[in-house]
Specification:
720 residues; 29 helices; five-stranded parallel β-sheet; elongated; mainly alpha; Rossmann fold; Fumarate Reductase Iron-sulfur Protein, Chain B, domain 2; 9 strands
């Protein structure tokens, strides 16, 4: 057996039986490959430096540590795609080990031996090294074969690169070159790994007469198995010698070509993804970048307006399609795919910024030309942040979209339907065109008075919001919440007619100047009041006051109504609610659940109400947007398209015996009731606000939450 030989003698002669000219040729080609690689790296860095400097990678070491943890754990890749994440980990760790192994060989053969006479690539180190390399190579091949299976046989829709913002006749519609690139990448890696095994197998057959080599062959288990097969097929040492030489050159040239082309192909995502993860803003889904409204230009109208971070972002995209799949606008048939938007920006950057000389004149981003971002694409966004949430490499699609919207608004290139809304916001501080005096009218239908927080101190300042103040359906919820707070003995007040919209949708629609004016006025008003904390029933308001007002000097303790209700019920402050014998499902508002991690308090409230909660297919941070966000509630949806709320209502209708679709946002309430009607589900189940359920369970005004229900729905519930 192999133990008859001293393992210390076992090694591999790197250029065994190679003539000098071959060795010299290999090193010359190798240095040329490295030169091409380094030039490509410089060209990419030059491209990024032509953007605005962001400083996004500081502080370096904490960000570096977080990035390493993310990369090593693969947690962002495994989310909602466990199998693909595992196989990617096989490829990643296998490739990493193969790279380390190649570096070890280079260190031993090309540095330590010639400079110091030291060598370590022999004996037990070499044998363990061989086992590890074989396992790594096998893992890479297995992972790559799975990725091929996903593309060819599973044919996942998200891996279809045809563009929703283009027509079949457009020159950039198909993007078939990305499919070709994917397959070239997969086959090249498989070829490198497979020829490595074949090379080792042919070496073993060639040296089968050397006991030091042959008797230790099983320390290269895959190579040894292939060698056994080769011998069984009649391959002898002489034939193996010729085969080895051919495979050596094919394998070596393919590996060097792979290295040389790395900065120019999909492969560069290995590096750009890490840079993107380092630069990632953990608040990117919650707050938009602050713009200098007094500057020369607002937003991104030119490619050079993008920061170096965003230019790295677009190169980091791996085209995995998770953002494409998660996008509410895309699912509803609108001309927006976050992935395609990013790829368009990438192609523009590669065509204009990567060359030694930039094109003369401005490089405009928005327009109708090839690779330009069409305005209708930008206006399709709901700002639900599903794309930012799911991206495994930290691409921040939403801030880029908002920045491009800002430029369109600045240039006056926006949907005409926005004009009256923006004027109303400027004039009266709300989006519904209502007089400021009407804002507190709902309070007159209460049998108690609500404090005026402008005039007297309160413990809790309730920031009511536009829809909660003016929309007739939402007003019922608003009054219900007021009764709950009153019953709980909460010392609360409102701002009456001085309240204005917090500005969440104003900012996301791109009107940064108006947003900042609203924010500054609201902060001044809030600072003039005396209170301990703020509560709001509107997740959009909650997000803006919590996450965006601090940039303008307004830092407050704020909670959403659902969190307050959960705490009041848990602490026994509210009257003991009765169990509600309803079968319900819960729709997570984007700005509460996904954007602000507020998924659990509403569910805890529902649990305390005793309802039978059945989760929707998409929930919590994977919730499907109702379609109201990003200013879209102010714009009409084309008749021929399915509204997002209709898709969501249809999803709810899949639940057997559903009685109530629970929402937790005034805008969601408005949109989902329309969605239920639009899908023909009126009378099958009803839409209720979480607050209405608590209100009913407390028995404050029995049946008040049901006044607008259709007779059919009432009859069904009574039967149930």
């Amino acid at each position: 057996m192999f133990l008859e030989q001293d393992p210390k003698e076992v090694t591999r002669i790197l250029f065994q039986d190679f003539p000098v000219w071959m060795i010299v040729s290999f090193y010359v080609i190798g240095f040329l490959a490295i030169g091409v690689f380094l030039y490509g790296v410089w060209a990419q860095i030059r491209k990024y430096l032509r953007g605005v400097r962001s400083g996004a990678w500081s502080p370096f070491w904490p960000r570096f540590g977080q990035m390493v943890g993310t990369v090593l754990s693969h947690r962002t890749i495994k989310r909602r795609a466990e199998a693909a994440g595992r196989k990617h980990a096989w490829i990643f760790y296998g490739f990493t080990l193969l790279f380390i192994g190649t570096s070890i060989i280079t260190l031993d053969h090309d540095i330590l031996r010639p400079l110091t006479g030291l060598e370590f690539w022999h004996g037990w180190f070499y044998l363990i090294f061989s086992v590890v390399m074989d396992v790594a190579g096998a893992a890479v091949i297995a992972g790559l074969l799975y990725m091929m299976y996903r593309r060819k046989w599973l044919a996942l829709p998200r891996l279809d690169y045809t563009r929703p913002d283009r027509s079949p006749g457009d020159p950039d519609y198909d993007r078939s070159f990305y499919r070709r690139e994917d397959w070239a990448f997969l086959w090249t890696l498989i070829a490198i790994a497979a020829t490595g095994f074949l090379l080792e197998a042919s070496r073993l057959v060639w040296l089968q007469g050397d006991p030091v080599v042959w008797n230790y062959r099983w320390f290269s288990p895959v190579g040894a198995a292939i060698a056994w097969l080769m011998k069984g097929l009649g391959l002898g040492p002489d034939g193996a010698a010729g085969l080895r030489m051919g495979l050596w050159w094919f394998h070596g040239m393919l590996a060097l070509l792979f290295i040389a082309l790395t900065p120019y192909t999909k492969v560069k995502h290995i590096f750009t993804a890490m840079a993107s993860l380092m630069a990632r803003d953990p608040q990117a889904k919650r707050r938009m970048p602050v713009a200098d409204v007094d500057g020369e230009r607002i937003g991104f109208s030119l490619l050079t307006d993008f920061s170096d971070k965003y230019l790295v972002n677009v190169d980091a995209c791996t085209k995995c399609g998770r953002c494409h799949e998660a996008c509410t606008a895309n699912a509803s048939g609108y001309p927006l795919s976050p992935r395609d938007l990013v790829l368009s920006l990438r192609e523009m950057a590669n065509d204009t910024l990567s060359h030694a000389r930039m094109p003369a004149g401005p490089i405009e981003v928005s327009g109708e030309e090839v690779n330009m971002i069409r305005p209708e694409t930008l206006w399709s966004c709901r700002s639900c942040a599903a794309c930012v949430e799911i991206c495994p490499v930290g691409v921040e699609h939403l801030p880029m979209i908002v920045q491009m919207r800002r430029a369109l608004v600045e240039a006056g290139e926006f949907d005409p339907m926005l004009q009256p809304t923006l004027k109303s916001l400027q004039k009266s501080g709300n989006s519904l065109g209502e007089s400021k005096r009407k804002r507190p009218r709902w309070t007159k239908d209460l049998d108690f008075e609500i404090k005026d927080a402008r005039k007297e101190p309160v413990d809790v300042l309730w920031y009511v919001g536009d829809y909660a103040s003016f929309d007739p359906r939402s007003q019922k919820v608003t009054m219900a919440f007021a009764r709950i707070l009153h019953a709980a003995g909460i010392d609360f007040g409102i701002l009456y007619e001085d309240e204005q919209t917090a500005g969440n949708d104003v900012r996301r629609v791109g009107e940064e100047g108006l947003f900042q004016a609203l924010a500054e006025a609201n902060i001044e008003l809030l600072d003039s009041c005396e209170f301990t904390s703020i509560v709001t029933t509107d997740p959009h308001t909650y997000n803006t006051i919590r996450n965006e007002y601090p940039d303008f000097g307004g830092t407050y303790r704020i909670e959403h109504a659902s969190a307050l209700l959960e705490r009041l019920i848990r602490e026994g402050t509210l009257p003991t609610p009765v169990n509600l014998d309803y079968r319900v499902t819960y729709h997570d508002p984007c700005h509460l659940g996904r954007i602000n991690d507020g998924s659990e308090p509403p569910r805890q409230v529902l649990g305390r109400l005793g309802v039978d909660l059945v989760e929707l297919r998409r929930s919590r941070d994977n919730s499907f947007c109702c379609g109201a966000g990003g200013g879209r509630i102010w714009l009409a949806d084309p008749v021929e398209m399915k509204k997002p709320a209709e898709l969501r209502a249809a999803e709810a209708a899949e639940i057997d015996g559903l009685q109530v679709l629970v929402v937790n946002c005034p805008k969601c309430l408005n949109m989902m009731e329309d969605g239920v009607k639009g899908t023909g589900n009126e009378g099958k189940f009803r839409v209720m606000e979480l607050i209405e359920l608590v209100h009913e369970a407390m028995g404050l005004t029995p049946g008040a939450a049901r006044e607008d229900d259709e007779a059919g729905a009432t009859e069904r519930l009574e039967t149930a």
